[in-house]
Amino acid sequence: MLKQILLLLFLLISNALISQNGTSTPYSLFGLGIENKTATGGLTGLGNTGFAQKNISEINIYNPANLGNMEQNSFLYEFGINGVFSEIKTDNTSDKTNDANISHFAIAFPIKKGLGVSLGLLPYTKVGYDVDLQNYIEGSTSTYTTRITGLGGLSKFYLSSGIKIDENLSLGVDLSFLFGSIDQETQVYSNSFVSISDVNRYSGVKLKTGIQYTLPKIKGREITIGAVIELPTSLSGAQTRNSYKVTSSDVEVAIETDIENELDDFELPLAYGFGITSQLNKSITTSFDFKKLLWGNTNQLQNTESYVDQDIYAFGLEYYNPSKRNLNSSWNKIKYRFGFNYNTGFLQISKTQIDSRFVSIGLGIPITKDKTNFNISYSYGKEGTIGNNLIEENYHKITLNLNFVGRWFEKRKFF
């Protein structure tokens, strides 16, 4: 009964947040927007590590190979939401924003022993910006204002499967469908007012493979290594444009109406990553991930900016000590988590690479006896810099995640 009540409450909260979904950062002006840094289960509190996380009661969207470790007759489903408070500043101005988002929905279940399947829906990129630009009128010292606003982003629906080859080795594959639109409006305030509204739609398919291997125990210590490869792909694009102008005599004149245009394909790069998770003792587990995205090979141009290779480093530590003497203590059943993540970024502006970093802490709180958990994490992060006339964002992020574990397809026993 408790799970049903929590599920209903979470659905109501998620429904209330749908109308608020978005982000507010000028860097989402570039490309397809900013990447949605989603992690399932308790991985947000662990710095978004996951390549080598071998957990049978949580869904791991980073490495599909983990699905091979699912228990028979189990059924996993989870929801996530987050709230972000940001301060965006330049050399001489600052602004504060609040955003609330649904982070993901996912389910996973075994087909048979050693073979698991998962599917889910989550934001892939997020767009939300409102930028004013001052431009000089050609041959004059007078200026005019251009206001550019954007909203939207891409979503990701994934279907993944993992198979357990033997007791230590698992393999997995993930097929993701990316789709969505970015609405951009450009308003020019000069002698006359001009508005250009573009709806840019993108779609495509992305393939990822993964592997996890648990090494033979050394002095009772368990070490798991994991790796993933994401193949490069192209997202096809199309645009619908509407525009009009308002003359100085306040007359509105249509310029373009529902004009369809083709957009250049957006190239997603080859990416690879590896990780290691080590159980130091019965209470402490550490994890480290590294991922590289070869954006430089896509040869894409973004006005005067450029795409460069991206490196992501992540570290996590979890403390969990359910001693037999204190099994009835609720505090003793909680998992305590700490994480750090550094991302070099893939965008270079004014010869400066836009990097980001965050630290996180989290709790995994059991709410039933069947490994169902409520995960909460807090992250403090920074993206960009105020140097070179750029923008810096400092943010506080709260992530809430309900991870339900059900028992399905079990035969009833009669005595």
Report the top-level CATH class.
Mainly Beta
Distance between the termini: 26 Å
Strand content: over 45%
Secondary structure class reads: mainly beta
Q: What is the CATH topology classification name?
A: Porin
> What is the helical fraction, as a range of percent?
under 10%
Looking at CATH, the homologous superfamily is: Outer membrane protein transport protein (OMPP1/FadL/TodX)
The biggest sheet, with number of strands, parallel, antiparallel or mixed sense and barrel status, is: 14 strands, antiparallel, barrel
Spans where pLDDT lies below 50 across 5 or more residues: 16-21
> C-alpha Rg, in Å?
24 Å
Question: What's the β-strand tally?
Answer: 22
| Coarse shape | elongated
- Please give the CATH architecture: Beta Barrel
Helix-strand topology string: HEEEEEEEEEEEEEEEEEEEEEE
Organism: Flavivirga jejuensis
Keywords: Signal
Signal peptide: 1-19
Protein name: Long-subunit fatty acid transport protein
Structure report:
It is a single chain. With 415 residues, the protein is mainly beta. It has one domain (2-407): Outer membrane protein transport protein (OMPP1/FadL/TodX) (Porin), CATH 2.40.160. Helices cover 4% and strands 60% of the residues. The strands form two sheets. A 14-stranded antiparallel β-barrel has the order 2-3-4-6-7-8-9-12-13-16-17-20-21-22. A hairpin with an 8-residue loop joins strand 8 (193-214) and strand 9. The longest helix has 17 residues, at 2-18. The radius of gyration is 24 Å and the shape is elongated.
